Amino acid sequence: MKKTVLTTILAALILIGVDATADAQTKVGTVDVQRVRKDNMEFKAALKEIDDMVVDFERRRDQRQQELQDLAEDMQMAQEQNVSASVDRMRNELQVKSEDYQTFMEETFGESGIIETKSAELLAPIYTKLADAAKAVAKTEALDLIIDLEQVNPLFVSESLDVTEDVLVEMAKLR
């Protein structure tokens, strides 16, 4: 909600060309954060680490799903062969493994799961550097506002407003 309100305000400021005073117009710059993530080495390394972690967890998830499926099929066969002792044992094992699978999914892929937590841990300091670099560029170029084009989706933005390269240079200085 807060993000939507901020986005609306920023878009309105751009659209009406708000005058900061009667004599001066607001100076605006834009940053293509998608490009920053692609071109900045720290972002690339963090995103690769996250991707590798996700691939590993997906492999483990798939393996657990297959184990559950195999166990369910074995239980079905035991039921068809009318081996009740095996069916009861397999039913209990299936229950335990199903609960374990659900716990794994929540702890790994859930909102507060390992992937989300690790992503935030890796990316938060980089986004802080991005913000610091944008502030430095704004100060150097006397900009009143720098807009993240990923958060605001304008229909057109002049290339002359793009300060992405300058922000990338500043981020490299902040190592």
Supply the CATH architecture of the largest domain: 2-Layer Sandwich
Question: What percent of residues are in strands?
Answer: under 5%
Number of strands: 2
- Mean pLDDT across all residues, rounded? 87
CATH class of the largest domain: Alpha Beta
In short:
The protein has 175 residues and is mainly alpha-helical. It is built from six helices and two strands, in the order αβααααβα. A two-stranded parallel ribbon has the order 1-2.
Q: Could you describe the 3D structure shown?
A:
With 175 residues, the protein is mainly α. It folds into two domains: 2-42 and 122-173, Skp domain (Protein Binding, DinI Protein, Chain A), CATH 3.30.910.20; 46-116. Helix content is 71%, strand content 5%. It has helices at residues 2-16, 33-39, 41-80, 84-109, 114-140, 164-173; strands at residues 28-31, 145-148. Strands 1-2 form a two-stranded parallel ribbon. Helix 3 (41-80) runs antiparallel to helix 5 (114-140).
Which tags fit this structure?
175 residues, mainly alpha, Protein Binding, DinI Protein, Chain A, 2 domains, 6 helices
